[in-house]
Predict the 3D structure of the following.
Amino acid sequence: MNARDAGALAPLRAKRKASPGSVRRAFQPWNDPAAEPLVVFRNVTKRFDTVTAVDDLSLALYPREFFALLGASGCGKTTLMRMLAGFEQPDAGEILLDGVDITAVPPHRRPINMMFQSYALFPHLSVGDNIAYGLRREGLPRQEITRRVAEMLALVKLDGLEKRRADQLSGGQRQRVALARSLAKRPKLLLLDEPMAALDRKLRESTQFELMDLQSELGLTFMVVTHDQDEAMTMADRMAVMNHGRLVQIGPPDEIYEAPTSRYVAEFVGDINILEGRVASVTGEIVRVETAIAGAVELDEEAASLAAGETIFVGLRPEKITLSHDEPVQAVNKVAGEIWDIGYLGDFTMVQVMVGGDDGQLLKVALANRTRRIERPFAWEDRVWLSWDVEAGLVLPP
Amino acid sequence: MRTGNAPTRRLGRLVVAVPYLWLLLFFLAPFAIVLRMAFSDAATDLPPYAPHFQGFSQLGEFIAALDLENFRLLGDDPLYWQSYLYSLRIAALTTLIALAIGYPLAYAMASAPRRWQSLLLVLVILPFWTSFLIRVYAWIGILRPEGLLDMVLAGTGVTSEPLRLLNTEAAVLIGMVYSYLPFMVLPLFATLQKLDRSLLEAAADLGAPAWTAFATVTLPLSIPGILAGSALVFIPAVGEFVIPDLLGGPDTVMIGKVLWSEFFSNRDWPLASAVAVVLLFVLVAPLALLQRARLTRGGAA
């Protein structure tokens, strides 16, 4: 088949060898003009009756990439994935795999496998037969199938459960069988449809890291479709936010979070406070914005395109705001307010502060709970000050 | 149940007892009467068999008068066992043909858009709203020489000679398949309808063309429906009396017909009872084996 087949697949390591950040930072084929994409969507459109599920969409995925497609339900992300698997036909445009047009290729002839959200395990077959299903269709010799099934079971740590039926497994085990079954044919591209949706939170976290290990170890390309932003941000090298059948923004998770290019992305990924304002002046890299709620605020933005008098939105992530009882004299950006709500979440506390009087605007502030006891805890109805750096705010187009 | 007080517990037991009481009254008791008749001898009497039960004082004599002679006769006279075999043959053929027609029918119904499905279901059940007897009589009109079928065939120029289907085995099979088809379609439809579509997508995704996906996923998962439908067709088909009587001829002697003539023509109630008892065991034995096989399969997996 290909080079990936050389050498048996090692079972998952118990401990991660290197932090993913350091490895992943260097991996940016989408910035390399010489890189050959594995999958290309070229102006793909798909309509259902009157609804346009995917609208003139173009996208390139690169080999060994872990790509996450994030969007609210009904945004077209599942349709996009199903077109890649071959279950839906685009109305316009073409899909290329390794430079070959696969738009008309039926699902069973595509070197792409999918892990279904419902897992879609065959209830009449054992775990082993489920994993062997795709290999049997390839007509591999019996010994080879047995060997590969054992290899897959070891990979997903289900050794010894080969004879069980799917309905005798726990949710986590079923997910592993589904994963093993979709990996058994060693597809060029693995599609994962909401892979963690049916798992509880603890299991989800550990499985996310296992999936990342597996992907880098096998050198496969993964595309995961999810509505869960934590999942997408944890696992993906690159993610895309989809809305109304279009990709609104595409980039590494930190870029999506810290530099959203639209209000939709800023609000969809993470929590954000939006202040409406008017550009007062642009001096070098400092933009001065006159806001109705918080007065004049300064932002450090490369905002050459902004002109004085323009109406814009200022985005402020809750964790980038500092909360204090006394007025922070040094701070450039500050505003007074009253605490209306305190939500204790364990690792951090989300405080809602009413700014600009009782008819003003509620701003969210996230306080990291770094110590177990706080000397002057914040309480409801406290008069407090909010302050933030010039780097904290971001400019969003109206 | 454990936490309930005594009156509710008693009520609970009563509710459970009702179906058992029903079975006892309307199944076990009649069967006991038929069994007792099968061990008796025919007599010109009222009712036409002997001995009669004369009270517990003469119980010994009563039991001594019972014998297995009727069952021996069933084994000796080829008419009876040949009728059994012929009935099984016709029932098996009916089941197979009904399956061959019913499976694609049920499959098409299950794949139809959801809003059409209830209408299709009504169409399958619709014939039940007309008397069964009238529908079988209608087939006489269709199949008789120069009947409806012959007229259509001659009119379209397919044949010029009458087919002479009536009073043949083919006519019996046509009538049987027509009458029992809904019993095959309904359980198959129920099974195929709840089949998870994503399983077929998974099969296609893993490299199975449509036909392979059907053979490896749809077919094995519809086996419960196939078994239920086959049982619902096969069991009443073995004992069928009306259809072979109306559409069949002298050579289509099914056991239901034999049973009828023993009871009403020959007035040999004990022999007819023996025929019925054997028929019951012929039908129950394979079902029991099937059920057992299913239980062991479920337990071992």
